[in-house]
Amino acid sequence: MKPITRVNDFVVKFANVNGSGSASANALFARAVLRMGVPVAARNIFPSNIQGLPTWYEVRIVEEGWRGRRGGVDLMVAMNPETWTQDVAEIEPGGYLFYDSTRPLPESRLRSDITAIGMPITAICNAEYTDARQRQLFKNIVYLGALAALLSIEPAEVEKLLAEQYRGKEALLDANRKAFRMGFDYETAHGPVGLRIERRDKVGNRIFIDGNKAAALGAVYGGATLCAWYPITPSSSLAEGFIAQCRKLRIEPGTGKHRYAIVQAEDELSSIGMVIGGAWNGARSFTATSGPGISLMQEFIGLAYFAEIPAVLFDVQRGSPSTGMPTKTQQADILCCAYASHGDTKHVLLFPEDPKECFEMGAQAFDLADRLQTPIFVMLDLDMGMQDWLCEPLTWDDSHRMDQGKRMTSADLEAGKDFGRYLDVDGDGITYRTIPGTHPKRGAFFTRGTSKDRYARYTEDGSAYVDNMQRLLRKFETAKDYVPAPVVERAARPTRAGVIWYGSTGAPMQESLRALEKLGIHLDRMRVRAFPFADAVVDFIAEHDHVFVVEQNRDAQLRTLLVNECGIDPGRLVPVLHYDGNPLTARFITREIAEKAAVFNFKPMRKVAP
Q1: How far apart are CA 238 and CA 248, in angstroms?
Q2: 320 half-sphere exposure, CB direction, 13 A CA radius
Q3: How confident is the model over 434-443, as pLDDT tens digits?
Q4: Rounded to an integer, what distance in angstroms lies between the CA atom of residue 230 and that of residue 275?
Q5: Is the pTM of this model over 0.90?
Q6: In principle, which of 18, 215, 319, 387 could form an S-S bond with 362, CB 3.0–4.6 Å?
Q7: What CATH number does the domain located at 487-599 have?
Q8: Does domain 209-391 have CATH number 3.40.50.970?
Q9: How does pLDDT run across 153-180, given as a tens digit for each residue?
Q10: How far from 317 is each of 42, 215, 290, 310, 329, CA to CA, in Å?
């Protein structure tokens, strides 16, 4: 088998042990490639224990800028004996295996169709260091140096990154530089491989950031002043990011007063209760959680819906149900959030595609919550929330003013304006509200979760209840005009088939669409960005005989929502489902759609790679 030869277009995967200190070195590798002007898509695949179990870090180097996983590995850096067999099996024919050859391996442990590159890393570190922990930690920097030599990464870029990481810690900087040079010099003597990184200018002004940090900054720009949360993977870093930003941006100049409140509650029930209490009092309030937290918050969410209290919930979805796979990704909370709580409820969901949209929708959610007086769910997932993505810079319009929705002031009430807390005066389903204390005698000081009439007076009269519930449906219909519209693109050729997706699925989707076109499969495409669905979603489906719905869960939850809410014939919506917990790949989408399309007489021109 001829070795693979590629420039700026290959996948490197690191197989390590959790807790070995490899994460820092692996991230340095990805950032060094970025510093050479070549885009990367990086994924940290890690277990839910503290240390000892296998962990992987996959770096896709791709000059074209694709942000999703491709599938397959061209160079495996195999540093974990426990996963050796599966790691070696994952390498593409003609690919490369880099491993620690301190202990010789029998030929039976290798493959004849790949190139094995052994380096006695343990022996090198044992000869240089006496401390056991140093031996382990510097192994990672040694193999980083070796990879720089093998792949033609400019060593100056790595050394700049080391200098930034260890600024002010000269002893650590010198030690890491030395370890890096040991690996670099060793492999320089052996020559490069067929995979090579060449300097380009393809990164531009894009930034490398994860969705949780971006969403946290969005909450700051959206005017949030109260965060109540309970730690849960993978959402904790969102709340932590908000704390960090508030410490920089929400301290009153001169006095040093904190213009924010952050409470780490004793559980998820307490956190959502605090959010609702703060929002009822006029504070822009939010919580960050994941699926198990949403399950526990159900009754309070129903209260916010029925009492019509604005609140924002960031749901960073993970493998489920129950404890599920806490450090794996899915899109499996869609139905849970859309209909959260008992009884007849419907909630607004936002589906950001990348960190830039996490920032934008993170800010927009607070305007929507105030405008619609209801909970707003921002639906991230672990892949988007915890992984660094290369995306366009986060931008903000300084002329933007917060939309506080329909509020009656003290002057309005003093002038004798008719105020009914649940009175719809203009037919859009949204009523006027007051902040407690707006007026000493008039306005809403209390709220209730029981049935009431238009003036918030307790009643269990059936007609009053129906009147209120129908108004809530009108408000949900009105929400269509405020939530982000879907994004539609047409295929290069006329077609009667389409594809719909949402969220982080967009990362591999664009690449897959190009691959499908090469197979002769042309699809109109729509990215859904919010629920309730715009009328354009129904129109798009109506235009096509079949529409593929690509999502990351077992039960086709978006497809179910489309059928339930839009009256779509289920036979027109073809599910393409991925739910093993790993971010889906372009190859998976291409293969699944090509196989399903064959049933509808779309004839692929060639076989799709597995």
Answers
A1: 16
A2: 25
A3: 999 888 888 7
A4: 12
A5: yes
A6: 215
A7: 3.40.50.920
A8: yes
A9: 999 999 999 999 999 999 999 999 999 9
A10: 19, 14, 5, 22, 7
